[in-house]
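Supplementary Methods, section 5.1.

A reviewer requested that the exact input to the structure prediction be made available. We therefore reproduce it here, unchanged from the version used in the analyses.
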Amino acid sequence: MGHLKLEILCLVVGSVVALLALNIDSALANTGSNADEEGGPVFVKEPPSKVDFSNSTGAEIPCQSRGTPQPEIIWLRGDGTAVGDVPGLRQVLASGALVFPPFRAEDYRQEVHSATYICLARNSIGTIHSRDVHVRAVVTQVYDTHGDQEYIIKGNSATIRCKIPSFIADYLDVVSWHDSDGNVYKLDNRGVFEDGKFVVLPSGELHIKDVRPEDGFKEYRCQTKHRLTGETRLSASAGKLVITEPQNSIMPRVRDGESTALKRKIIEVQLTAALLCDAQSSPPAKFRWYKFTDGSSRQPVQLDDRLKQLGGTLIIREAKVEDSGKYLCVVSNSVGEESVETVLTVTAPLAATVEPAVQTVDFGRPATFTCHYQGSPVKNITWMKNGKRLPQTEAVIRIDAVRREDRGMFQCFVRNDQDSAQSTAELKLGGRFDPPRLTFKFREEVLQPGPKVSLKCKATGNPSPEIVWELDSKKVTNADRVQVGQFVGENGEVVSHVNITNVHSNDGGVYRCTAISKVGSATHTGRLNIHGLPHVKSMDKAQVVAGSGMVKTCPVAGYPIDAVIWEKDNRVLPINRRQSVFPNGTLVIDNVQRNMDQGTYTCVARNAQGYTSRGNLEVQVMVPPSISFMSFGETAFAGSATQATCLVANGRILLVQHSTTFTISNSMLNCTGDTPLQITWSFEGGNLSSHLGLKTALIGSRTSMLLVEPVSLGNQGIYTCTARNAAGVANASAALEVFVPPRWIVEPTDRAFAQGSDAKIECKSDGFPKPSVAWKKAAGDGPMDYRDLKGSAPGMRVEDGNLVISAIPKQAEGYYLCEANNGIGAGLSAVIYISVQAPPQFEIKFRNQTARKGEPAVLQCEAKGEKPIGILWSRDGKRLDPKPDPRYTIREEILSNGVLSDLSVKRSERTDSALFTCVATNAFGSDETSLNLIVQEPPEVPFGLKVLDKSGRSVQLQWSESFSGNSPITRFYIEYKMSKSDWNSGKDRVLVPGSQTMASVYNLRPATTYHLRLVAENEVGTSEASQSVTIITAEEAPSGPPTGIAVEPVDQHTLKVTWKPPLREEWNGDIMGYYVGYKLASSDKPYLFETVEFSREVGKEHHLMISNLKTYTEYSVVVQAFNRIGPGPMSKEVAQHTAEGKPDHAPQDISCTTLTSQSIRVSWTSPPLASANGVIKGYKVIFGPASSWYDEKTKEIKATPSSEIILHGLKKYTNYNMTILAYTNGGDGIPSTAVSCHTEQDVPGPPTAVKASVMSGDAILLSWQPPSQPNGVVTQYTVYQRTVEPKESEATSQKIPSFQTTYEISGLKRKERYEFWVTAHTAIGEGQPSKSATTSPSNKVPAKIASFAEKIVATHRDEVKLPCQAVGVPAPEIKWKVKGQMLTQSNRLRVLPDGSLLIKEVTRKDAGDYACKAENSNGHDTIMHTLVVQAPPQPPSISLAGATGTAITVRLKSPSDSAPLHGLTIHYKQDFGEWEATQIPPNMSEYTLEGLNCGTRYQIYATSYNSIGTGEASDILNTRTKGQKPGVPSAHKFIEVSQNSVTLHLSSWDDGGCPMLYFVVEYKARHQSDGWTMVSNSVKPSGNYVVLDLSPATWYQLRVTAHNNVGFTQAEFEFATLTLNGNQVGPARTNDNGRGLLLEVFPWLPEWVDYNMIVAGCAMIVIIVVGLAVICIAVSRRNRGPESFRLRDEGLYAQPDMRGMTLKREFRDELGYIAPPNRKLPPVPGSNYSTCDRHKKGMNHPTWNGRRPAAATGVPHTYEELANGGGGIYYDDHPPVPPHAHSDDSSLYSKPPNGVPGQDEEICPYATFHLLGFREEMDPSKGSNGLTLPHGSTTLPPPGHGHHRGGSQSAPRGSNTTRYGRGPVGSGVVSSVAGGGTVGPNGIINPPNHVFSPEYDDPANIEDEYGYNSPNRRGSLGRRSMGSMRTVPIPESPSPPPPPPRPSDSPNSTPSHSQMNQSNDSKESNELSEAECDRDPLIRNRNSVSGGAPGNMSTEEMRRLIENRNQNEAHSIPNGLTPYDTVNV
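The structure derived from this sequence is encoded token-by-token as follows.
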């Protein structure tokens, strides 16, 4: 007893100590945990629920969270899958943000840019999700908004909508409206604009109150703002009001579709909502708004500062959630009523908060989280734990007993269709919970029976765990030999033992120790094996629930065990798919079924000796109850009885939901389950005993019935039947509904009300369901045909079942029906009568009534009220008596509800306009109404119409208003038409409001004559039209672009642009030309423009070739037309690609893989897209053996569209080279670098040949040649032999090394015949056998050569051995022959001991046949070897085949050689350059070197190469490419001037055979002393180039430098810009009186010299000398010399031979002629006379040229006439003196660029000059007045016609004419002149070798082809040519080209001076106009042209006529000149 007490005391003390230690540990653990507190993730920055962004801006969605440890951010899709990066479209940053970069429209992907995303944050504590993030990217699209056109009845309110495309409607807000008067109606910060008449609603509509006719004259445009991009724009079209006048009364009608459809509107809280009620009627209606409160009852909307009604629109400012609901708008007037219903939903942002945010709960204690949410509407509530959905849908989540797995993050989500919100909370476990942990585990052991065994487990945990032991799933308890013990160690560990003494084999099995506490468990399992026979222990009965799984391990003891199996019904398991048996004896059955799995199972254990043990397991399958159906049957009514039956049978749970309760169809509740069953009932979760009238009864063992009798409302609710058995519990519920028919609470009765008072009639009832109360009104006078109240009377409504009528009108009187019905029974109804007692009443108190003058008028007033009613009329306040005035008549008519009185007026007059009053009286009161009669008539004609302003497209008019016709003028019509149209069919109208007297007419055509007049209109009619005014609109630039623009690719670098002129009505003048612009389609740079001249051919298509473009590049092309005013609009861009080219790069990443011995896979990637130069159609794979890669014939080509190909049919074990190229429609691209691949080995072919040579009586030497197709590396040979005679034997074999090709076989029998054959081996296997060789050994051995004859190929200078192995007895003698001659041995050629011939340092000469002969006494044998020596190839020959500017073609020839030629290498370089090389195939006979420099000398040679090496080089070929420096064009082809610019036709330059590189363009004013102005130093060498910003009517110098590869050429030109009127200017004047010119010629003159005196004196001397010479020669030749040279009576003299002489310019000018400055003659259409315009085009014609200055004395000039001997006429080219030039002649000439004076400045150097005075010359009587010129030459030029002028820029030249050649010029220039002479350094003309005799034209003797056909043709005297003293400059000095042709304003009138200048493209100088316009009368009979004026021919027609005629008239002159050229005389 004492010991027991001591043990108890020790135990108590130990427990106390353990508890203290446990508390200390817990405190320390808590302290430690607080020091480093962990926390779950919480969002710091949560992404928004909706993210919209534009593709041009992109978006970044932040997501940040905090927690300990720091949470990880992961983005998910809506379906829960992780989000990854999409290059360029989506990226997740390290910060957690989700980024959507800006992207192109074509890169839009719906799964990326229109998706739902979730941000997930997680750490070791838990996981949380963000709200749903709805991402939507908006792709920028072209859109337009449009104003709506609204049809409205006058007096109503109109609503104009802004039509927005649906695809952009979600992102556009209407911010303002703009009308045509400039008014802006802009939304304020509250979202509404209101100024009385105009209201802009928050939804963007423009509301216009009380519409009047003048409102229809305005246009309204809406301005929208893009919510994402901020872009604002006005609508493309304006909205308008179409206002109609009502003809009669119209009941209210709602906008189409709005009356029948229930409108829904969603608005965010605090924003402004506008509920539209868009209706119109006549008279205008009243609008009343109601709100439904309890579903069916409605209340009037109480208006205040927040709720306003504007017309029919209800405005709700600062909307609240309480404003949500259904609203009703009632629209009514005197005719009827209409209504519109709108459901308003006010949304508030959702927000959620979970409380508590952090909750610490001890194990097993309850926990609760509550979700508090805000916002509206809330659609659902969901919960998540650690990112996984929970089934709870309530706002509160409860955990009854917290377990360890409940720890983590809880989230509450609140959602609706547009928004979502979430909140997080963390659940922490309180105290210290350490689950059990095993610190020591027993080991598995194998023991012999007998000894003791101890199994131990240690465990720790808080609280301390208990350790339980099991053996084969049965608990181990203490027994005789088994003891279980447990104690707590010093460190708190729990130690448990199982001790077994004298262990038996049956003690073996699976032991399990389990440490268990309330916070968890830990288990260890191990097997203890005891040697012994197998023993299956007994097994307890297993009970399994049907549908679950069963796992059972067979409890087997004994060791070793060979197998454990399971049986059932004597069948070894498994027998179906649900059964599994494992080697350790475990049986697993899935989805247990009673009928198949219940029964006895047998476990059989067997050892290796065959001993077995068996044990049975009984398995019982239990079925839990399952209730499938329950119902109360038919609907229960109050007072009746009902029942529900719960039956246990087959079935499943099924609930059918009706309304808000669950009802189940009329069937019974079925259950399945094993008995015994317990069936119970509950009501609303409680016991049935407390409810009266409820009874239950059990019927049998499976059925229970519930009876409810009698049924009352208290029995309504949910009834539940619960069935239980040992396998489980099942329940099902059903709802009982009790219906009660309606009954009266307040029954309505008859009522009477005074009119205008508020009426209310009650009608109330109750019942279940709650009855609905409805009111109806009888349609007629009796109590029948009841209809809905809608439209019966204004202000009538039903509120909570009561009928309410506000301000009850008379029309509300009648029978009414109140009905109460809930679907139960027949319902209730009551009929009442409501009477309304009313005084007389007029609905309209005042109105205006109009009548047309002379027509009758009727005034009506209708009074409603209780009868009788008396009516009195008054006029302007005085009682009206119709008797004095018979035009007035009064009539009354009694109506059912009042009286109608008519006042008729016959033939209304203007004096009848007055105020009429109608007074009605009855017993209840009186009322009156007023009618204002207005007699109207049409307005009078407007007057004073005048033009205030006009432009090209508009005119502004003003007028005075006339009498309005006693009716306001509603509008004016401005009628206008073009002058050629009539007023009936060709007029247009402009509507002007009647309040205006000034307006503008727009959309006119420029340069068009219009007639305009005015018409006034009022409501009565229109006035007569006013007198018309006439205007002519101004010209404008073209208003339309060219049409029919098409761009087609010509080649890889050229596009052809074609187009047609703009529409004729868009010209706005004459089209002068076109600007064609082009640029890269992807570039933002401006267009490059080229100018194209306008073609006047009707319907002709213009075109332009744009060259030097990039290959397969998309270009944008625009075309715009221009006229005199300027350019018109550009056409729309037309994009086109140039033609496809060849790819510039080869495919990349080429790899090859060997597949088999005959196939290789090749793959690659495409070349860079930028280098494709087109669409890659496919790839070509070029492949061939590497050994013959040089030979194109051995290569194969395969095409494929993919980037991979498998090459089949290749040679075995062969190294292949392959290269790949891409190809497009433009051709094959650059091939890649060759890659190599080796095919695999295969079995070899047979050895080529086999020899069996007898060596002796028992030995044979077998030799063979290697296989011709080794197909790999031969590793060995196999020699086979067998006996074939006298009998066959099995073959034997012998392996021979691969390097050995002979084999000596010995030990043979002499009398037997043997057969031999050989096979070769590779690593793959043995190949085919060779042909067999048979022989027999013999003692007689003749000489035999074992070697084979071969073709041996040797390399130059190598050593070669020719084999000749021989056998024979006696040993044979070996002899060699070389090329048929016996071999003479030397050090280089010697025979080796084995008979082989060795040749050292082989040369080409050694090639040939080598014969080896072996001979002995028994015989001889011979073989022949052929030696081929391969050496580097011999040099090829190279010669020139052709050359161009950038290429040289060479012809190649390679000599034949023994070694195949692999290719040739062409080496080339330019002088002083580096050598370059290119390789070509060996079979190419010609090759072109391209890309060379133009005009450059090159050295070229070639070498050949083969497999041996490169041969010697060929001779060097010296040659050059063609080309020279650019050639200077003529000025008239190069320069085209206008007022402010000059166009340079760059294509007119001769490129010298080399492509132009660029131009440098500079200019300066002609007398500018400082430097040149650089325009551009990189002008593109194609098309035209325009120099802008020049001053009109100004002379300029232009310097152009053209560059090509050869060099550059610089030329200077002079030109003058046109005047502002488009005319040309005369030569520039100088004010130094020629001083500067003389100083340049004679720089040594001192300053004090009077230059005027020097010039005058020199001129006088020259004149005297020349005059004397002429007189002397003329007198001496009067009677001598040939008749053709005699001076005639008319005063003509011969000219002496003056070759080699020089004349001062003053003398030369005296011989010329200048026409009088005061004459203007018309042009000569159809003649051969040249004009400036035609010279510009390169066509010159015979010309008269007057060169003599006007005499100061005023003596009229005479005309020169020389005989025409068939030669040409030649003139100097000085321009005429302008009329304003009064200074010295030197003012006419300028200094050329090289400083040499004397170059003429001409107004038009290629114009036609018609000598005035020709008419006088034709009269012989007047010939004596002419000034004669001396003639002196008797040599005449050959027949022909020509007109040549030195210095002309446009005339074509012969081959001898070199006018611009540079040469040494003393200090200047030496140049050639026309005709063959040269100009020396001093300006002296050196005559050519041939006689040169030009003449003046004689128009009287010219041939008929020039327009003259006179019978009086005379001969003329010839005269020799004299050169001008001037030095011909290198660059030309052109005069400005003429302006474009302009037609005269009046083609039928007599042309004035200015008109003729325009028609003939002349300048503004009189001289040129006279020369061009003068003509001879004799030409008037040519063709159909009559008169001297153009008459009915346009300038263009004249030009064509002249050009067509002259194209067939030009021909060459044999003396080297060109017809129609000009030389100096």
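The CA atoms of residues 1406 and 1429 lie 7 Å apart. These observations are discussed further in the main text.
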